[in-house]
Every structure is written in C-alpha cells, then in structure tokens.
C-alpha cells in the first residue's frame, strides 16, 4: 500500500511540475506577445535618427559643419546601439560571452573614429579620403572576425561540459558579428553623398540607375532583416526569464547588422562608379 501511495504521490508531483511549466510557458508567450510592438518602434526610432544624419549629409552642400554634425549623429547612434545591445545580452552564459562582443565592437568603432579623425585633422574630408577610411575599416573588421572565431571556438573547446557546442558557438559568433558590423553605419554620410551625386544626374544615365538600384536593394534588405526579427520573436523561445531585456537585443540586431550593408553598398558604388 505504501508503495502504491508513493507511486501516486510521485505521479501527482510530476503532473504538478508539468502544470507549473505549462503555466510558465504560457506567461512567457503572453509577455512576448505584449512586447512584440516594442521591436518595430525601437527599430523605427534608431532608423529615424540615422535617416536624420543622411538628410544632413544631403543638405550639407560642402558645409563642413553639417557634415561634422551628420558624422557625430551616426557615431552617437552606433555607440548607443552597441552599449544597449551588450547590456541587454548581459545575462549571457558567462562573462566571456558578454564581454568579448563588446570589446570587438568597441575596437571596430574606435578604428573607424580614429581614421575619420585623422582625415579631419589633416584636412582631407572628401569622399576620396573616406573611401580610404572604408578600406582600412574593412581590413580591421576582417581581423576582428578572425579573432572572434578563434576565441569563440577555443572557448567552446575549453568547456568541461561540452553540451550544445554548436548553439553556443553560433550564439557567440552572431553576437560578435553584430557588434563589429554596427560601426559600418559610420559611413552612412559618405554613402548618402555618393547616392545623392548619382541620383542628381538623373535616371537617364547608367550612373543614376546604378545608384537607384543600390538604394532600393539596401532598403529592401534592411526591411527584410527587421521583419525577420519580428517573426523570430513571435515563433522562437527567446530569452526565457529575461524577456524585458532580450526584446531590446532582438530589436537592435537587424539594425546593427545592417551596418555591414552600408559598408558593402559604399564599397560597391565606388568600385562601379
């Protein structure tokens, strides 16, 4: 009888735990659904600030004051996004997973700022000099990506309990990649100046058509990344227990990685035109 009673007690206890887990999962889904509107609102706010810097670059008409303000707006948005993303991911599995992406992102941003400051101090602020800065930044980003992969792989190999190695490695690489790519937004004023000069010539020539195609493709890719983040948030089990922080990381992720699209678009335009 005591054995049967113990069996019934364990069965009841198991059912109780399952009930609690189901209630917790239901609460997380409701909280995720409630936070979903915050994703596009955050992305629109960040993109609006970046659009402001692009408009300032278009209106500059060789005004160094507006160009400097445009660059400062871009750098400020990049710094805020990098800090907010790393703070939102502060509950990562270890200090290594939290600190390494920020260090790599800060190195990427410092490199872009340093070469831009050298251009300003030396009096070379034209598009030609900015393209030189872009090439140097791309080289730095490649070096940082190699460092990221080596450290992330080494960290997984040094773990005593090597469970979920692939997921842990992919998460570390994605976080580091996002933090490195966000500095590409620093070249938005230069990209805007290139597009403005090409579109001003009209769509009758091949130069204007190339600039229009690059602009449309860039906007389509950014919109696609943002919509993918909305779908990912809706369907994925993201940030269980840390939803209030993780929604910010998910909303910033597509905007930050789109910084690489800015650098690629500018590189392709200067190579073609």
Question: How is this structure best described in words?
Answer:
With 273 residues, the chain is an all-alpha fold. Helices cover 84% and strands 0% of the residues. The chain is built from nine helices and no strands. The chain has helices at residues 2-35, 38-59, 64-88, 95-121, 127-157, 165-181, 188-200, 206-235, 243-272. α2 (38-59) packs across α7. It is globular. The N and C termini lie far apart (87 Å). The model has no long low-confidence stretch (mean pLDDT 79).
Please render the helix and strand layout as text.
Elements: H1 2-35, H2 38-59, H3 64-88, H4 95-121, H5 127-157, H6 165-181, H7 188-200, H8 206-235, H9 243-272
Helix pairs in contact: 2-3, 2-7, 2-9, 3-4, 3-9, 4-5, 4-6, 5-6, 5-9, 6-9, 7-8, 7-9, 8-9
